[in-house]
Every structure is written in structure tokens, then in C-alpha cells.
Amino acid sequence: MKKCLTAAALGCVFFASSATADTIAGVYIGAQGWNTSTSGGFADSSSTANFNFDDETNGAAYIAVEHPVPFLPNLKVNYTGLDTSGVTNLETSFTFDGNLYTAESDVMTNADITSTDIILYYELFDNDLISFDVGLNGKYIDGTLIVEDQASSTRGVEEFSGVIPMVYSRVQVGLPFTGLAAYAEGSYLSFDDHTVSDYQVAVTYSFIESLAVDMTLQLGYRNVQIDIEDLDDVYADMEYDGAFAGVEIHF
After folding, report:
1. What CA–CA distance (Å, rounded) separates 27 from 68?
2. How many other C-beta atoms are found inside a 10 Å radius of the C-beta of residue 126?
3. Best CA proximity match to 196, nearest among 162, 168, 166
């Protein structure tokens, strides 16, 4: 799978040329506050439970470095918190960390998960009207999952981590002379029993534009789906989604 994704990315390189690369180097730094609703659940087998999770406010931050050197990919690093917790009256029984949790019992769950994206990408187009990026994303997921039966105090804890190779793309359309633009950005993988996707769409407004710095406001929607089978003995099928607001600085 990794070889196929690498070949696809290299193929995109040959469609890119020095005419579409940035004429000057640039650094983009951004931060977002994300109102996250979570659904789904996890277990230590393919029979995952469905939990009730509370809505949370999670954060994301990123930095991207773009340059004018042809054929050398640009770099973006994106960090996202995916923390959630809740209390559920179980509809079905399931096992976790070697413990059996029976139907009709009340369990407290906590998912402390972080996602770090290391993205290498090329700009196939880059102008005021439209920009289009494509590349590869190595998504590193690291988490601790906890289940506790409130009646018996039975407690299970599992830690997991892994790097998931994904295809990445981003397209932005601008309205010249207004400061307004819209973009869609996402990464995706479907391989064997794993399906992971992470996409966002947003409207942006550039309220400061100068030779030294640009500042842009963002308002959008983000969706993250994690369907993993036997990653460090963890099975999970969870979806995070909700609106976000952010700000980006371009030097």
C-alpha cells in the first residue's frame, strides 16, 4: 500500500513544474477551536460497543512551510486533539482489556486521542483564483482508552499508537479583491479492514494583507472517521464532527 501511494505522489510530481511552484518561501501558522460531537465506540474485538459521548471543545494547530524549489515537496504538520468522554447504559455486552462488560450496566468511557499529520505535498496550481495541492500524509494516532463499570468498579485501560499512510489533497477558490475564499482539505485511506478519513471545508476572510504578514479568519466544518481493526489490540469505529473557527498567519 505504501508503495502504491508513493508511486501516485511521484506521478503528481511530473505534472508539476517550476512555473507552478511558490516564487518565494512562505510559512503558515494556524490554530482552530473545534466543537466536537463524537459517536461510535471501541473494544478489544471486532464487536465494538456504541457509547454516549459528551460534546467537547477540541483544539488543532498547524504549521506549513512552502518554498520555490521544484520537485521538492512542501511540508505541513498538523496536530489535533480528539478527547472525549461520557457515561453509557450498555445495550449489548462487550469485552475490553480482558474484562466483560454486560448489557444494561452503566459504564464510564474516556478516549484521550491525539492525531499528528506529517504531510508532504506539491502545489499543482497556485494563484488568486484557485490553488490545488496533492501529496501524502503520514497520520500518527496515539491514544489511551478507558472503560469503567460504575457498579463493580471494573476498569480497563488500553493504549495504542500507529502511523497510517494516507492520500492528501487541498483545493481553494478565491474571490479576488474581496479577501474571501473557500477551501476543502482532506486525507483518506481504505485498506484491508482499516478506513480512516479526515476532511474539512471552510470559508475564509483575509483581514490583514501586507508585505510582512497576512492574517486570515476561518469558519468551517470538520469530520474525522477512524475505523481500525486490531491496532495494538484495539478495535475502534468512531466519528468526530462539528464546526470550527480558526485564525491563520502567513509570513
Report:
1. 12
2. 16
3. 166
